Automatic annotation (TrEMBL):
This is Flavin-containing monooxygenase. Gene3D superfamilies: 3.10.450.50, FAD/NAD(P)-binding domain. Pfam families: Pyr_redox_3 (PF13738). GO terms for molecular function: flavin adenine dinucleotide binding; monooxygenase activity. It comes from the Bacteria. InterPro entries: Auxin_biosynth/cation_transpt (IPR050982), FAD/NAD-bd_sf (IPR036188), NTF2-like_dom_sf (IPR032710). Keywords: Monooxygenase, Oxidoreductase.
């Protein structure tokens, strides 16, 4: 019996797969997958972000897209590997107008998972590496402009005498990263930010805020953090980096600018975006509008009887200035997720008397454990040493369909539970309500499903376990009195400060505020997978709702997520926008239906 090497197995599969795709019946290529196999496509085949599950869905997709997309030239990129009966391979391919990259997993000769991603539009590549601009204009010319003169002219004209093709509302890391991608693709873009400076959305948060993800996970497009950058970056350092980044990447960044309204002009197929820039009213008319207002929508502030009678200070966590002003004060923090823990710890450090009110259970994972067990293989110094580039890590992460992701994560969090058993026991003994997700799949699935319900522990949990941060769990605030709060168990706690660490609504709340409730409802809920778990109602969607892909509102897009997602998915959103600007044929397969409004 012939023993095939992993490379031979992949090459045989690719040859047969490619032949079927180019035949009269390309949909028959579905037979190259396991019965329950997955094809996850990031724009390459579907002009969408879409996962096809099983033969029937793959067949349907191919029957509607293969003739137009013409996928061909499937090649093994580097040596394939085999472990536990699974062959893994990095591959390249082409379509009618783009170059692609992907990852393939084979079991017993059939595809278990296939990831296909568009990497570059053939006719419109980014001008980098061999295509980088010369910079200097050699030779004599009476019309010569310096780089500075050209930049100043662009800043004078764009948005005034010349309209941008795209406007991005929101100038945090998401808007900045997408702006950089579009800049490299020569898509005229303006990023709008109401703060005075890039990075202010980080600088304005509470003093102790830092990234809870490690540096290898958080690089921006094109400009990775330097090798000496701290593992967990403090907020003000991130703010400075973003400000520097906007300058170096030559973004048309309108700070101190607020978008007051936007509406879609059906007749002209463009947006009418009204902004106030440094006190001046300006109307922009871009073709494409991107909401990059953060993964979250408007702050959730509960309506509690007696709020208006409170004599102390009360604010949402997004407005919390830090713990310095509250020494010796009685502080109540409603909530028990990331912000609540950070704020409680900062108040404790400033000698406040602080009580955390935990309404429902929270997933806790120690930062070191998360790095060691969950992220280390892809995002760590060891991973870099092993040749795992940021791009390779991102694509590996993306290659796992959301449907099977929980099964990969459960063992990791079972191991964490065993490894940190003493830590968890002490937390529960203090009365803290712990969970590991509805199905034990831990942090990242909770984040994808609902964007809340967890804390990456960088020290505050120890304070809770020791009773330094007081805890009331399984209750909430029933009413607020002039100098105290009454809890649902009848307890009354004196209070000088109440912080509502109660999270945020869906991103389409911003669409409702800036555009209209009608458009927000037309688009529907942003984020979540339809997993039918807590705060993520079904039906199953298979991808994050409305993120980085076409929505039910023509020419309206949503961009957000953590730094990792923002970096990776900004590529696919930028390519979709560039293709439309250049008039390429972009038929969207499987436009997401709306099942939930917010």
């Amino acid at each position: 019996m012939t023993q095939y090497t992993p490379n031979q197995k992949v090459e045989q599969w690719l040859a047969s797969f490619s032949e079927t795709l180019q035949s009269e019946s390309p949909e028959q290529a579905a037979e190259h997958f396991e019965e329950g196999g997955f094809w996850r496509d990031l724009v390459a085949m579907t002009w969408n972000i879409k996962t096809m599950e099983g033969h029937e869905e793959i067949r349907d997709m191919l029957s509607k897209t293969a003739a137009d997309r013409r996928p061909h030239n499937w090649q093994l990129l580097e040596d394939a590997t085999e472990q536990d009966g699974v062959v893994e391979a990095w591959i390249t391919f082409e379509t009618s107008d783009a170059l692609g990259k992907g990852q393939l997993r084979l079991r017993d000769g059939k595809a278990w998972t296939l990831l296909t991603t568009m990497q570059e539009l053939r006719e419109f590549p980014e001008k980098r590496k061999f295509l980088r601009p010369k910079g200097a204009q050699h030779g004599a010319s009476k019309s010569r402009q310096t780089w500075l003169e050209a930049r100043q002219q662009e800043e004078r004209e764009l948005g005034y005498t010349r309209q941008p093709y795209c406007v991005i509302i929101g100038g945090g890391q998401g808007g900045i990263g997408l702006g950089a991608r579009l800049r490299q693709l020569d898509v005229p873009t303006i990023v709008i930010e109401r703060n005075p400076n890039p990075g202010d959305s980080w600088r304005n948060r509470y003093k102790s805020l830092c990234l809870h993800d490690p540096v290898w996970y958080d690089h921006m497009p094109y400009l990775p953090f330097p090798d000496h950058w701290p593992v967990f970056c403090p907020k003000d350092k991130i703010g400075d980096w973003l400000e520097m980044y906007t300058k170096i990447m030559e973004l048309n960044y309108w700070s101190s600018t607020e978008c007051t309204s936007a509406s879609y002009d059906e007749a002209n197929q463009e947006w009418v975006v009204n902004v106030i820039r440094d006190g001046e009213h300006i109307t922009l008319r871009p073709t494409q509008l991107v909401m990059a207002t953060g993964m979250s929508g408007m702050p959730n502030i509960p309506d509690i009887p007696g709020m208006e009678t409170f004599k102390g200070e009360q604010h949402h966590s997004s407005k919390h200035p830090g713990g310095e002003a509250y020494k010796g004060k009685k502080c109540i923090v409603l909530g028990a997720n990331n912000s609540a823990h950070d704020i409680c710890a900062a108040l404790w450090e400033n000698d406040a008397d602080v009580t955390m009110i935990q309404r429902s259970s929270t997933h806790i994972i120690k930062s070191d454990t998360l790095m060691d067990l969950a992220l280390g293989g892809l995002y760590s110094e060891e991973a870099v040493q092993n040749g795992v580039t940021t791009e390779k890590a991102d694509l590996t992460f993306a290659s796992l369909p959301y449907r099977v992701m929980p099964e990969f994560h459960k063992p990791v969090y079972e191991q964490a539970r065993e490894q940190d058993a003493d830590f968890y026991n002490r937390l529960e003994k203090a009365g803290f309500m712990l969970d590991f997700g509805d199905d034990g799949s831990g942090l990242f699935l909770k984040y994808l499903r609902r964007g809340s319900g967890y804390y990456i522990d960088v020290g505050a949990s120890e304070l809770v376990a020791q009773g330094e941060i007081k805890l009331k769990s399984g209750v909430t605030i029933e009413r607020i009195n002039p100098n105290s709060v009454t809890l649902t168990d009848g307890t009354e706690l004196p209070a000088d400060l109440i912080v509502y660490a109660t999270g945020f609504g869906s991103m389409n709340g911003w669409a409702a505020r800036i555009i209209s409730q009608e458009v927000a409802d037309k688009v529907g809920k942003c984020w979540g997978l339809g997993s039918d778990t807590t705060k993520d109602p079904g039906p199953w969607e298979g991808e994050l709702r409305n993120m980085w892909k076409p929505t039910q509102q023509e020419n309206l897009w949503f961009h957000g997520g953590n730094l990792h997602q923002s970096r990776h998915y900004s590529l696919y959103l930028a390519l979709q926008l560039k293709a439309r600007m250049e008039g390429l044929h972009t038929p969207v397969y499987g436009l997401q239906e709306v099942h939930h409004l917010s």
